[in-house]
């Protein structure tokens, strides 16, 4: 009988404050969709870091004849065979840092350049002897780039030491910045949602102050009086959480797998799988249920005093 009464009161409260209930649902849905999206973005960035950092190389570019005339680092002339052997020998000794070393000749560099930038006007004027020989070093730990840079920068025959990780760091820095911006918007939306929940509870408690006063006089417990209001907020929040979960699932389905099909168009990006999305849904639903219930509970401590 008591459970039936509580459920009937929940329905009455939701219908009385339909507009505010709708506002709560929308604000909770948007804030939790951003919350879930920020969690998935973090997973995506971490997965991309693990994928790309494992593939980045440190490149030691060697001086050619053109560099000897124009680059201060190559003022002693083009790299000699002796210098190349010495550089390779030193790299092979750095077994604690270096995992693999590969050599790229001028002809190979020219071929790779033509494959990537063959349509550019500059490609037609380049010749193989203008390209740079290089050693491509695969590190055991991508963070140890500075060890290579310190050992080989400024050496005879070395034009520069470049770390591809630096380019990726700029990209991941941008993605992390966007993720924090989304979290800031999410925090503001959560504050708005909490304010709406508190106001909805206030209006509902005020409109039923006579009933709650009578219940208090006849000996009803505080929890029994508060339960319908708390459940109203929880139900509205749960609906919003369900909408947020649906939004994340639809976004993953239509943007990554189908529709825009980014997973097929952007082969260079290793997108997170469905398991990462599905594991976030219980957290979103739990938050959507507990957050409004707790907000309503603390609001009712003041507004249901008779």
Folded structure, characterized:
This protein is of the alpha+beta class. It contains eleven helices and four strands. The chain has helices spanning 2-16, 18-53, 65-70, 81-93, 106-117, 145-152, 164-207, 209-217, 222-257, 262-265, 274-303, and strands at residues 58-62, 98-104, 134-139, 158-163. The protein has a four-stranded antiparallel β-sheet. Helix 1 crosses helix 9 (222-257), helix 2 packs antiparallel against helix 11 (274-303) and helix 7 runs parallel beside helix 11. The model has no long low-confidence stretch (mean pLDDT 80). Residues 185-302 form the ABC3 transporter permease C-terminal domain. This is Cell division protein FtsX. Belongs to the ABC-4 integral membrane protein family. FtsX subfamily. Its main location: membrane. It is found in: Cell membrane.
